[in-house]
Amino acid sequence: MDEIGMARKRFELRHWTGDARQLVFWVAVALTVGAIPDLSVNVSAAFLLVVWLGAVVCAAVIWFVDKRKEGIAVYVELQRPGDRETRHKDLVRLLNQRLSRSHKGWFRAGPDRGEGSIHDRVDWMLRTIEYRLEEMRIQADYKPTVFLYLRCHLEESFVLGQRVSKIWDESDPLAAPGDRAAVGSNLAVRVRSVSDYERREGEIFELDFSKVTRTSKADPVDVQIEVEALGAAHERARRRPKLAIVLYAAKEKDAAKGKNAAKGYQSFKDSALKAASGEAPSGYVANRDDVCDHALIISISSDLLIDGLRNRNAEGFVNRIQEAYEKCCMETYGSNEVPVRIFMQGPSILAFAAGVLFPEGSKLISWNPTLPEASTVNVSSEYDIIAIVDGDDIGSGMERKLLEGDLSSATAYSEKFGSAFDRLLRRVQEVPGVDLISSGGDSAIFGFPRASLAAFEDAVEVFRSTHDVGMSCGYGRDCQKAFVALRLAKTSGKNVTRGEL
Questions:
Q1: Exposed e or buried b for every residue in 488-501, given b needs 16+ CB within 10 A?
Q2: What predicted TM-score, i.e. pTM, was given to this entire model?
Q3: Helix, strand or coil for residue 455?
């Protein structure tokens, strides 16, 4: 109770301080204007001149301080179980001082739902931001510049980048869809990240995406690039085009620590390539759909990158990554719209940039330190359980609308189900150990170990509770038993899960 009371006093004191500053400002203005006639009178002219000059200086200082403040800051934090709460609270208090000095106002996004998939949590967080911004625009009667301050893990930052690039992109509507040069350069928000890796009070890193495409290609940036084919040639020919991007920000560049840094880079590279090729997940939460045919390996000097982020001139690194991606795609696939799977170590704002830059269908593969390499699922091994999910009455619903001659309703119905089905696939594949074996139309086949069954069923059930699309599921020790279980689910009420081991 005492802590709440103290927090309320601090809150009220801050607002009283703000009111007092405004009062001083307007008193200074009044004295400045009101003293002008009196200065023409000889009585106490020197004193009035001093007061007048003091009021001018005071008003000018307050005006200048307020003028330097720009836009509205939004602090976005997506925590995970195990994140340190005490450090989080201290950081927010320290950020309040910094954001209050730099912006006209700020607020925290959320609250975080704390449940569901990362995509669901990010979507919810962005919806709360839009509601708050709309409220502030109505109150202030103007559209302020928005500054996003992020403190998230890599995967959450990547998904945020994907979503923000769609919601707040102000690209030319007449630009060609395949024009990747404009991607990210028209974001209607400024993006900064908050890092407390080295400093307890936090550091602010910024990438200005409007500078990415303007950065000269001749600008020197310390980036090393390799391209490597994954798997045998006949295996690559059977796979859908998919590029792995192995992105590593090496910790040290000085000679004394270079050997350790080289070992760390080589270990990360080997593990990422094994997971990308399907040879061994090596702790990465990867599945069959994440197997790639080529890898673009990018190594960045972390010291130079961090210095650039601190000094707000790191856009050259992002530009170099984008150029390397486009060149590799054109030479390997003849297209610069190939989806990627990203395996990375580096700052979260770089993961956000990847979410903005890379095409739809791309994914950042998370690494789970609690999963030892020996316990991860090899994508070429046999599965303990096969599960089949299938939409209920999807074909008959589409046929009914087509027979009624209502093409627009049939199209909307198909798009609604397709969007919901994509969300189901994403949610289920976030369960550790679950592999997507095949998908098409309104059905999908998954394989996973017995230990993942409960989490798989929970993921399917959460989907049912949040969508009005019927989805039956059957599982068993092999595909035959899974199909029989699916038939049983279809004939026992639909939109249920049946299985037997």
A1: ebbeeeeebbbbee
A2: 0.62
A3: helix
